[in-house]
Amino acid sequence: MLAGGAEVPVAFWRVGDDGLSMRFYHEVERALNDDQYIREASAGESAPFALHSESNVLPLDRAGDAFSYRIILREGASAHGVALARFEGNCSGLVSQCADRLIARVAKTVVSLSSTHR
Question: Whole-model pTM?
Fold first, then answer.
């Protein structure tokens, strides 16, 4: 846990207006707000990190049930900050579970980076 038990605010920048991308990013936002270590930054809040989706999710099958994603963790609240980590993966199950797994990986990275940048 971080010092004082406070959640680290993380800005979330998304790219994608297709239904599948919007559904996934909505679940990422939910998972981000449900996490015990990180939370989505409020508008105008200074955040030490930002998640940035590089593109729409990419369907892996004709049915559109499976897709791949690429998200970068960046320094600062901007979508243009220095890239600190990349998260790529495939989702073929429940979108909510894919988002939960992604945010668990992001939180672990944020906690690790926060402890080394005190």
Answer: 0.89
d(CA 6, CA 50) in angstroms, rounded, equals 17
> In whole angstroms, what is the distance from residue 97 CA to residue 27 CA?
9
Condensed to tens digits (0 to 9), the pLDDT of residues 12-37 reads 999 888 999 999 999 999 999 999 99
Query: Among all chains, which residue has been given the structure tokens 């030490």?
Result: 48
Element (DSSP H or E) covering residue 105: helix 95-116
Span of 3-17, 18-32, 95-109 with lowest mean pLDDT: 3-17
Q: What is the DSSP string of 16-58?
A: --SHHHHHHHHHHHHHHHH-SSEEEPPTT---SEEEEE-S--E
SS3 89: strand
What burial class does residue 29 get, using C-beta atoms within 10 Å of its C-beta: 0-12 exposed, 13-18 middle, 19+ buried?
middle
Nearest CA to 87 out of 71, 100, 76, 103 is that of 71
